[in-house]
Please model this.
Amino acid sequence: MMTNPKVRLTRKVVSFILPDVRELVPEETPIIEPSPSSPKGMRVPEVVAIEEEVGWHALKLLIALPYLLKTMYYARKAVKSIKKNPHRVKKKADEEFFKEFEEYAKELGVSAIGYTEVPRECIFSNAVLLFEYAVVLIMDMDKEKIEKAPSITTGKEVWRTYAKLSEAVYKLSEFMRRRGYNAQPDPPIGGSTEFPLLAQKAGLGYTGKHGLLISERDGPSQRIAAIYTDIENLPLTDSNVEKYSWIPDFCEICNHCVSKCPAKAIYKETKIFGNDHEQHVDYTKCVVVFTKTLGCSICIKECTFFKMDFFKIKQALMKYKKISSNKSENSK
Ligand code: SF4
Ligand code: SF4
Model:
């Protein structure tokens, strides 16, 4: 089947910005393949090009041009920087390294960091990794600007955050290399792994019904990136996930994002594929609105975790569960 010229051109641009890591390392370099059940990674521009309906609306993105250019500049620089990984590699890091790394990340605007081993199921079927561990970085977005969604102000904030996080992921990888460690930066656009799932595994929050990570501090209002490495003694943060494991129970009774999504793209019943792989959103529907509105973000603004305190929601859920269980006891 012939691919249309718009899609072909878009694919060329995407692979220029985010080149395949296999083309950047010597052929004999060991790589970590995705699991046979891994889903395909979605490149937003490609889906936009395939969805003819979007058309010239995509030009609205020009309003955020400086941030778009900065995002693309740092994303390409970050991916290509794997060529600079040290030859004589250190595999153990001391406390001082992690302390300095986290201080530098904070200076660059990173709001939280998690450390985890990457499950192969998290790697997209059209990507590969060079290293098995991940440093997961999240960066929050300005609440007042997200509250205005959908708007130019919100769209600019989304792209400002992408740009700043792309810069941070590149600079932090360089920091690791200067200290003698390997790093494969994965910028926040077009990641090689399912970022919300990876961040969830790293104990930074839990995936909500809208498919976004919900964290204690920022609810769903953040962007995610990662740096893969072979540092063997990362202070893994996986056990923090227990703090968030009640979130899906709350989503089951909330469903607010499902009814508010203008594209009707969020599944009320999350779809399960293959090996328990969850799909929350129909991205072909989402991307149309996402592009027309310069980054939509309605599902972030409307999420209960964006509007209310994390612990108050937890308390309300516990109360609800208690009342429901008392009712069912009484009816026996
Ligand atoms: S970004 Fe907008 S269109 Fe996409 S899922 Fe969220 S609310 Fe729906
Ligand atoms: S709006 Fe409700 S259902 Fe949707 S992710 Fe947020 S808490 Fe979950």
